[in-house]
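Write out the 3D structure for:
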Amino acid sequence: MARTPADLTDDDLAFLAERHLATLTTLRPDGSPHVVAVGFTWDHDAGIARVITWDASKKHRNVAGQPGGRAVVCQVDGGRWLSLEGPATAVTDSDACRDAEARYAQRYREPKSREDRSVIEIRVDRILGRS
């Protein structure tokens, strides 16, 4: 059964704070799925999953080319998994990019500096899985 960010349990939140990689699924212009491995961060207060990337990446172009389109980030660890789905936006605002980089550094490591940094923000409205 699908849940919302408000339904996340303490176990879910702990799982989302652990250092794991995930997959990001966006849609290509022809509607087929594009799935790549990513690091992501979860902002529970805002209900946003963030993936840092760069302007020329396929994931950025997929999201930027489909305003109002949806994306999914899915974290898996053995039998534990959570899929976070919602409308996705490709953000290039420098303040938003710096914030996303800082969040990424807390969860994973300091990302490489890029002039063409962008962030995919997923405003999560559907969650599947179990932690």
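Residues 94-107 form the longest helix (14 residues).
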